[in-house]
User: Fold these one by one.
Assistant:
Number 1:
Amino acid sequence: MRIGITGASGLIGSALASDLQASGHEVVSFVRRTARSDQEIEWQPGAALAPSALTGLDAIVHLAGAGVGDKRWTDAYKKIIRDSRVDGTRTIAQAMADAVDGPRVLVCGSAIGYYGDTGDTLTDETGPRGRGFLAGVVRDWEAAAAPAVDAGLRVAFARTGLVVSAEGGAWQKLFPIFRAGIGGKLGSGRQYWSAISLHDEVRALRWLLDNDVSGPVNLVGPDPVTNAQVTKVMGEVLGRPTVLPVPGFALKAVLGEFAEDTLASQRIDPGVLRTRGFTWDQPDIRAMIEAARPTRG
């Protein structure tokens, strides 16, 4: 297959590209500079993309978007978070809908932030949209794919949870803290975290490419656990104490509004993956952390 990837230089995109290429697939990266070869397509998320640019592609995995936890949530950065997802998705979806000989499959990045704070309730893809900034972003993000959906293309929304990796995302920041012996539960620690290893995230994205699945799909492990349980396992795997909890008010002082999502509980069930036969290589939080554990530092 010839597969286009937006966000190909990011944590998930680069891992997916390497995995696809190792399996003999051709990967075409979407770049925001002049394309240097036929393995690249120049694009700008907020500008129209010529449908002819997609000729010959079998599918697109759309992962581009500003990092949610990269900066404090000012009004300006919240706009960047939203626009980078909504505008980019609309651009890709419209070009796919207009392409004569273009890709027929779109795997569109999304997030379990759609569900908001679910408390102790186990929630699958049939669950309602929650409240808050991220829930609204995900709603608009997925809605922006409407041109591709309306054109009859297969569109799957990869609602990804916390990706466990030392190379990026939340866990990249957690590992040094816990290795220094100053890691601890966040707030009460009772909030659920729904995570997936980077390895299984890539496998799940490839599964979405290969299987006739449309609509939202939760990309998380089969066993969500509380932050307190995550903290305990981190300490055990790294051999470090975890006795210093981080109070909620301290998180809010440092992170601002983003702290509300850090302290929120998301107990998410990967219903589609589970019922359609997907299997996890690293299904539990200990396996995820052990696989991602840095070898040094």
Note: The two ends are 39 Å apart (CA to CA).
Number 2:
Amino acid sequence: MDNLTHSLVGLLIARGAPGPSVPRAAALCVIAANIPDLDIVSAFDPATYLVYHRHITHAVVAIPFMAALAVLLVNAWGHRSVRAVLWRQWALALAAVGSHVALDMMNSYGVRLWLPFSEEWSSWDLFFIIDPLIWALLAAAILVALRWPVRIAAARVGLAALVAYGLVSLWIRNGVEAQVARMVIAGQAPIELRMFPAPWTALDWAAYVRTESGQYSLNPATQQFTELASADANVLDELHTTTLGRAYLQFARFPVVVAAPGEITIGDVRFVRDGRLGFAYRFQVDDAGAITNGRFEF
């Protein structure tokens, strides 16, 4: 999810935490709720970003260490906390870091939860990466928690509302998924089906469908299927010879490669919008058939 959502959740965790009050709880939880995104330093290079964003800093094994780092940062200025308080701060930071990983699992980008033991992506595919309704729910809870005596209850209600929204999204998605599963595409029934949230709404869902003879993308706006070309083995081999192409194929869970005269575009079904590839890289192909520079297309 976006960092505003992480920050708002961190504030609610600070306000709604049980037990004795923790010094600098709000600052601690906001830092802890964002600290896994330290991997943004990889953004200076597209290939490095694809490989290392949502990498080890988002894995289960890293959560305790990310929480400890947040405690160190928040105690780096002002009066340092005594040992007993440090443990309470660490426990609170642990909840905030855990909320970051859980929220990032709720969108289609996902996280590699089990690094360094497995590089498999984990995602629940419930929310688009930016969701204004989540902002509104969390902001309303924070306003109540800041202004009224029921601030602890308001914070907890806000967090519960976020969980409830996730459950409602899951219920809606399962209903749409059941409808798509009954469809016949080009005379064939689906043998593989994945649903992905559409931007700005919990009601529309994109779908990836594979049948015996092809693969398709469902446009939620038109409810029409677009056939996706299978990636040619020779093209994949060519992409593997480039640093960026190799990184994207490592990142993609449902890769789509479109070859055209003079160019190759590589994308992922998760980011197909209105029949076009988003979050994709377009490479130029020279007269000798070699792949040259690529550019990012959101």
Note: The first strand starts at residue 192 and ends at 197.
